[in-house]
């Protein structure tokens, strides 16, 4: 099994180009199922989750090829509506094919995503909302069997809780439903806006009618298009923190700083120097970091997907900080590993108290989930000596060429078998 060896504590200096967004690419790939014409996608990140989604689409009958840097998806002959456990178990976003398959065939059998390290990850909100579009479903032996005997019919749906995946599934499904759907209390993550932009480009009629409300008029004609997926804001945030924690000097490129305002403001508040240019954020790490209290929240709040990374940086603050995790119930698994590196973090329920003034000690470590893995790299980058990070397959699900990108800016990091 591959591992990463990190020799700290170099100051990172130079430029890092941010890849396309994994979490925008996944629903957009699922949404290509609606199309009967070719779709050309640009800027998909080369990460495992995207490979898995491509395999899932192929298992459903999509014909997928490469044309220069584009991924070309031809769903004109796609006709299967069975998403197997084998493909959905490794990546919960597999559930995103449920909405499009129902919209296209009025029928779907999709494996339940199951739990994962960070929480139980139910899909009750997806199912309840789909049933408002006329979907009947039952759950049997780990699969959702869903069908819409009269086809999907537009409706008014208010999500009981903000859910990124449920919002995406419903937007996609409603795009081909008969009549009008109004969705309220939607998630408004930038990746959802990217999905809406993609769907509009293929010919769907979707309009934001209030901050968290969408009006969708079902269509039956789809266009052939080319679309460039947005940048990965979590990858950008991770490298900003890498610059800060190593007291480095990094230019994070190919991004839109407006989308990561919350993260930038928090970094500024705790004393990191940030200069914003068009498509670039320049960060200069400061020796003195101030403590802060942070809570994760749906966008535009602070992202849960950066909680582990900011926690590492707050270990360097002048005083005690606190982090409240409001999205997932079990997202502090990095704490035990960080404490093994000398951090002093205690947790109570969904709150973590983070002592400052910590000098991380290098160690052999175990990655537990995608973002936890990268937080261990950040700690290892600032620790003197050699750290070894095991189980990096988690990391490869969501970070394109992480060791190459870090090496290019001066990190001493290598992948070993
Ligand atoms: C997406 C992101 C993930 C991010 C998360 C929150 C992708 C592929 N993944 O995950 O990286 O951490 O948003 O920003 O884009 N919930 C229910 N019932 C449901 C659905 C969700 O109770 O039917 C709960 C979840 O357990 C969680 C919360 O709602 O506690 C938010 O989950 P959701 O926004 O749906 O996250 P994902 O779409 O799974």
Notable characteristics:
binds uridine-diphosphate-N-acetylglucosamine; four-stranded mixed beta sheet; 417 residues; 31% helix; 2 domains; alpha/beta; 26% strand; single chain; UDP-n-acetylglucosamine1-carboxyvinyl-transferase, Chain
What does this 3D model show about the protein?
The protein is of the alpha/beta class. It folds into two domains: 3-19 and 231-416, UDP-n-acetylglucosamine1-carboxyvinyl-transferase, Chain (Alpha-beta prism), CATH 3.65.10; 22-228, Alpha-beta prism (UDP-n-acetylglucosamine1-carboxyvinyl-transferase, Chain). The chain is 31% helix and 26% strand. It contains 14 helices and 24 strands. It has helices spanning 22-31, 48-59, 85-88, 98-105, 124-132, 164-174, 190-202, 233-245, 261-269, 307-314, 333-340, 370-382, 393-396, 402-408; strands at residues 3-8, 13-17, 38-42, 63-67, 70-74, 82-83, 107-111, 136-140, 143-147, 156-158, 180-184, 205-210, 213-217, 225-228, 249-253, 273-277, 280-284, 293-295, 321-324, 345-348, 351-354, 364-366, 385-390, 412-416. A four-stranded mixed sheet has the order 22-23-1-24. Helix 10 links the parallel strand 18 (293-295) and strand 19 (321-324). The model has no long low-confidence stretch (mean pLDDT 96). The structure holds uridine-diphosphate-N-acetylglucosamine.
Number of separate structural domains: 2
Question: How helix-rich are the residues, as a percent range?
Answer: 25-40%
Sheet bearing the most strands, described? 4 strands, mixed
How is the CATH topology of the largest domain named?
UDP-n-acetylglucosamine1-carboxyvinyl-transferase, Chain
Q: Give the name of the CATH architecture of the largest domain.
A: Alpha-beta prism
Task: Enumerate the strands of the largest sheet in spatial order, edge to edge or round the barrel.
Answer: 22-23-1-24
Q: Which class do the helix and strand fractions yield?
A: alpha/beta
First and last CA, distance: 6 Å
Question: What is the number of helical segments per DSSP (H or I, 4+ residues)?
Answer: 14
Low-confidence stretches: none
Count the beta strands. 24
CATH class of the largest domain: Alpha Beta
Ligand identities:
uridine-diphosphate-N-acetylglucosamine
Gyration radius, rounded: 22 Å
Mean pLDDT: 96
